[in-house]
Write a structure and sequence with these properties.
mainly alpha, about 0% strand, single chain
């Protein structure tokens, strides 16, 4: 993913995180919810640890938009595009 795409995603996470912070329901084991961490964790869970180099910009943006509309939904409920640019190293070779 290009640096400009990563910067755009970071800006979207900040904007959406600020919007959904008051909407997050309490979570067992957490004193307070952090909307920005919630978004970053969701991206990592849905697109994998190497999402920065493998995920498509439009797919990550679709996920962020989905979280904005569904701030308390489980990450696995996202049915949008989870397209990766290349297979994991060693997976097919």
């Amino acid at each position: 993913m290009k640096r400009s795409d990563l910067d755009d995603i970071a800006m979207r996470v900040r904007r959406v995180g600020d919007r959904i912070q008051p909407l997050l329901e309490p979570h067992p084991g957490l004193a307070a919810r952090n909307a920005h961490a919630h978004l970053w964790l969701g991206i990592k869970v849905r697109f994998g640890d190497a999402w920065r180099s493998r995920a498509r910009h439009d797919g990550v943006c679709a996920f962020i938009d989905w979280i904005e509309a569904n701030p308390n939904a489980d990450y696995d409920a996202f049915l949008g595009p989870i397209e990766l640019d290349d297979p994991e190293p060693g997976l097919f070779g």
